[in-house]
Structure prediction request, 520 residues.
Amino acid sequence: MLASLKRITAKRKILKLPLFMARYSEFPLSLYNSYTREKEVFKTLHPGKVGMYVCGPTVYSYVHLGNVRTFLTFDVLYRYLIHLGYQVRYVRNITDVGHLVDDIDEGEDKIAKKARIDNIEPMEVVQKYTNDFHDTLKLFNFLNPSIEPTATGHIIEQIQMVQQILDNGFAYIVNGSVYFDVPKYQEAKGNYGRLSGRVLEDLMSNTRELDGQEEKKSPLDFAIWKKAEAMHIMKWPSPWGMGFPGWHLECSAMSTKYLGKEFDIHGGGMDLKFPHHECEIAQSVASDGIAPVKYWMHSNMLTVNGQKMSKSLGNSFTPAELLTGDHPLLKKGYTPMTVRFFMLQSHYSSTLDFSNDALEASEKGYKRLMKAWATLDSLVWKSGNVDLQLDKEITEALDEAYTNLSDDLNTAKCIANLFDLATRINSMANGQLDSGMLSKGTFDRLQKEFPEILRDILGILPEDGGDSGVVDGLMKLLINIRQNARANKDFATSDQIRNTLNELGIQIKDGADGTSYSLN
Ligand code: AMP
Ligand code: ZN
Prediction:
């Protein structure tokens, strides 16, 4: 065992890799696959490597909090995969052309429409809202993806894919547009509707006759290339004339380009299952002959009073409104970490209803964990009588935190484990428990892994400038000054310190073992 570890260490030195043991075999990951509707053990296509594609935003308006929830699910999955030791290529696109108003094949391009209304260039619209998207994700401490391709940057790849689908006989050209032939595809492959659980016959009977859809052989067909009218600004030359790609096509073309014809994970919001993801599968199968994705994952919706948060329903707010509290739905402002924590307290597959009460509870929970983190940092292990039961419980709580994350990314249960650990940590700080009641190994593991789970996997940071020890250090200083003032009978100073801290929501408690503090 020791010899093999030495060999691995030597190899890593040559390869200049950090000494890091892959943990994916220690805590094997299972994910709920929306395609098979089963929780499955996660097995990568290539050993140790993961290819993950997530549909990015259509950049024609400010990001709202619902969008943040979906991207957060995949940020945590990305972080966890890295933590488990996988080498991950995470591709998240920017939709900057082709997404039409009403999500159907007629009507204006969402970006071109916004450009017309604001009287600016479409690319100004794209830049403005791409910047907003990036700023928002930074605010909530998201990691950048490995590649962030744009639809307009991949027109050639999309034209090639349209051609391939035409060559394979699953599309037809009408008046400069190219349509995907759904009935023909279904007859040959039979899997259209499998992901979203839709039955073709039902879709047929529910499909309205829409204006301008008369070019299609069947109302189920969808455009993979659209002819651009003379007024249309965003258009490119193609073998079928001037036009632009259909919305669903970009994700198929870009995922294939960067992850291959088959890759591990494809994610997005639940509302993208149909038609977007259903069409993505059909396009790839029609073009390359294979279903592209091993694990389809869908994050559920953020709702307000049970209704999906969306810009068009007028029940959405932007991150800026959330921070300032300047919105009729908000009682007050909440910090980005409170919001991140709030979202992770529910499982990604459940709907999450926004409420001020829930956010206020999360604010308290977040502060409790940050306090435990700061306390843990300041604790020093001293040899003592090891309490085997306590030692075992802490080891189990840490293991369970990982097991829960490995169980379809159950952040809610993982956070419950952290609360459990926080109670023990606070007891050590209050002197009810002694650090020496833990073995050195368990104490070191707790001191390393409790912050690792919070910071590296859940992406939760202290909001005091990034150093959880700073607040604690300042508090110790203030408590000392106050104690000195009291010893010198300078009650004006000691009261001033206590009252000011009270106003900031920090309580000071004088006990038999000294003075401690708590954040409300
Ligand atoms: P869009 O820019 O509209 O394509 O949306 C970007 C992402 O946000 C997609 O994955 C959507 O599924 C997701 N999304 C939109 N509204 C919500 C919501 N209320 N809750 C969660 N995710 C959402
Ligand atoms: Zn997509």
